Amino acid sequence: MKIHPTAVVHEKASIARDAQIGPYCIIGEGASISHGVKLLNNVVIEGDTEIGDGCTIYPFAVIGLPPQDMKYAGEKTGVRIGSGNVIREYVSIHRGSVGSTGLTLVGNNNYIMAYAHIAHDCTIGNNVVMANSVTMAGHVHVDDNAILGGVIAIHQFTRIGAFSMTGGFSGIGQDIPPYTVAAGPRAKLYGLNQVGLKRHGFSRETIADLARAYKILFKSKLTLKEAIKKVQEDLPETPELDRLIDFVKTSKRGICRPTAAKAPF
User: Fold this and answer.
1) What is the Cβ-side half-sphere exposure of residue 215, based on CA atoms within 13 angstroms?
2) Looking at 52, 96, 125, 138, which residue is catalytic?
3) Is 155 a catalytic residue?
4) Is-above-0.70 flag for pTM?
5) Nearest to 67 by CA among 48, 95, 99, 92
6) Residue 82: partners with Cβ closer than 8 Å, 6 or more residues away
7) Which band of pLDDT confidence, cut at 50, 70 and 90, is reported for residue 263?
8) Which of 94, 117, 120, 139 is flagged as catalytic?
9) Which of 1, 129, 137, 231 is most buried when burial is the number of CB atoms within 10 A of its CB?
10) Is the confidence at residue 119, as pLDDT, over 80?
């Protein structure tokens, strides 16, 4: 392992042989740094925190500190970060709190840009892009391949669906369905994420089915229950439509609703 002489590493931290710990990093008791991880400099890793293979963490990122939760009283909680993540400058990722799983989870191959904050008990999937200054409250869930623009504030317990795109300067207080585009100070839907779906290789047929489902669910005059039934009766059963229907049916905060305005990006 390569540990800079100015780094402070607790004797009970676990560091893989090929990890690189740069100048002035602080690695606390119980932290686990896996193979190929690079901490460039001035990175703080505390508590029961696991960093997976091949992650690169930039200066002044802080991971595993206690949650900003007034109920928290020092209970043993942690952070689990998967492999291949890029975590840029000044990112903060807090460990879990009480009353839930006690873990903050980040999957694989995510790109988390400068000043983003991932609060206690959040779950981030795989291949997520978070632009600068995305700010999450506790218990937010972001599904795979979602893109979050810069300077976004996300309310606690809100869910962001897979393959969705949320524009910058948005305030998210309700769930963003998968495959959609949303934006705004009180975020509204602006239609299907057509460009993103094409880039991810979705077939024309699948995109067409999702577009029809979007119109039925979010732009018809049917109740949500009626719209779900109509989608299930009128459209073929596919994994993509199943994911969309299940997301809508299981929403607890309510679904972000559409607007007739043109998307601001």
Assistant:
1) 7
2) 138
3) no
4) yes
5) 95
6) 52, 106, 107, 108, 109, 110, 126
7) low
8) 120
9) 231
10) yes
Q: What is the pLDDT of residue 99?
A: 83
pLDDT at 265 over 70: no
HSE (side-chain half, CA atoms, 13 Å) at 60 = 7
Count of other CB atoms within 10 angstroms of residue 135: 16
**Digit-coded pLDDT (tens) for 172-193:** 999 999 999 999 999 999 999 9
In this structure, the number of other CB atoms found within 10 A of the CB of residue 24 comes to 16
188-192/180-183 β-pairing? antiparallel
Active site annotation includes 175: no
CA angle 70, 153, 155 (to 5 degrees): 55
**Catalytic residue flag (residue 10):** no
User: Residue 262 is which amino acid?
Assistant: K
Tokens of 55: 């992650």
What confidence score (pLDDT) does residue 1 get?
Answer: 74
Mean pLDDT for all residues in the chain = 96
CA gyration radius, the chain: 20
Please give the Cα distance from 99 to 117 (Å, whole number): 21
Q: Given 28, 107, 121, 143, which residue is catalytic?
A: 121
